[in-house]
Amino acid sequence: MKFGKCCFLAAGMIGSALLFTGVVCAQQYDMILQGGHVLDAKNHVDTVEDVAVKDGLIAEVAPHIDAKEAVKAIDVKGFYVTPGLVDIHEHVYAGTGERDSYAGDNSVYPDGFTFRVGVTTVVDAGSSGWRNFEDFKDHIIDRSKTRVLADLNIVGAGMRGPKYEDNLDDMDGEATAKMALKYPGVVVGIKSAHFTGPEWKPYEQAVKAGTIANIPVMIDYGSRRIERPLYDLLSTKLRPGDIYTHAYSGLRGEQDPETGKASKAMLVGRQQGIYFDVGHGGGSFSWTVAIPLMKSGFTPDSISTDLHTGSMNAGMKDMLNVADKFLAMGQTIPQVVTEMTWNPAHEIKQDQLGNLSVGAPADIAVLSVEHGSFGFVDMYNTKLMGTEKLNCQLTVRAGKVVYDLNGISTDMWDAQPTSDPKQAKRWTSFTERPFGGSAHQRFPASVPVK
Known about the structure:
By secondary structure, the chain is α/β, with parallel strands linked by helices. It has two domains: 9-78 and 410-442, Urease, subunit C, domain 1; 83-394, TIM Barrel. 19% of the residues lie in helices and 27% in strands. It is built from eleven helices and 17 strands. It has helices spanning 133-139, 162-165, 173-182, 201-213, 230-237, 264-271, 287-295, 319-328, 333-340, 342-347, 439-442; strands at residues 9-14, 17-23, 29-40, 45-54, 57-62, 70-75, 80-83, 85-90, 119-129, 147-153, 187-192, 217-219, 243-244, 275-276, 364-377, 383-397, 400-404. The strands form three sheets. Strands 3, 4, 5, 6, 7, 15, 16 and 17 form an eight-stranded mixed beta sheet that branches. It has a seven-stranded parallel beta sheet with strand order 8-9-10-11-12-13-14. The radius of gyration is 24 Å and the shape is globular. It starts with 8 loop residues before the first strand and ends in an 8-residue tail after the last helix.
């Protein structure tokens, strides 16, 4: 029996169970996802393809790849296969014990809220500043299976409430940039958030840090102040490639009060090359703003959650729920997938992510579409009805299955295994079965193996 290129499997029967006894030479691939509808905006792919994975990287994308070429072949017909989702606005600096703080109790541990919705990369949006970033890195970034990147808060102490976030004396662009440059590719942006004062200093120092470190700035514009109008921020203060989050909140001049469409500030920002991010959160997404802006053609560059303890059980549930809202407003599945994959990866200058190019990290989401009648809730606890809902069936991170909703990657309990259990580590991070998990060892003699 041939398994892959020049690869023969020696097998013997013990009772009625198939016992794998070894592989003379390994298959070409660790895993193949077969028959799914691939959506990959970077490579302009929107068709049925097979995706092969090897050593944690995308190895091949083609109309047909022989299942025998891989240790594990997974049938994903009827599903969408996308790059792993990239959420550029979350708060995951958990575990410090600090009350009412995004560098503490307001944050969540990432792995509990990512893989189950297809997210493989998150950016912590300013929970830490240059003073406490290394603690965040040690306790969260370096210990998470999710790829965790960071925007450094321009406030050195991080996002820890008004006492800290309004402290102009702790806004140091040079010190922030120095820390960012120490961890290139991990620190991917600078964040200013929640500032209530009239001064421009937070934004000027954030841009200074971003310019020195050559990374984008993300702005949560805090309190609306006539001394620093949104028009000036987006037309003169920010640079092309910087990111304005909470774009559909309507709280800071995003909407023209007369027409209901995008304000002049938003339009000039788009002309200037500013990216507009959803950043739904617990209080930053309104149907009365989003629907008119979307109808007038002001679509988001990136979909993000602003996930934290105050948002995840309110109107904002998770990444796919936010995407569902944009489907309900008329966007297509390829559009929302682009806004959750390639666009956010490009915004943070991490172009190796958010795509399925050969050689890219094998971060993959397998999504299904449920049809029915669904209610989607905004920050004011009002809803819009939609007819489509995205569900995550399978998530692959760094070439390993890390989430499988309905067991599509697994064998039936009473069936012969479809791959050698000894090679399971090549395609899954799940706990190994007891005793190596062969069919002979899984079933007592009284239970026949079909």
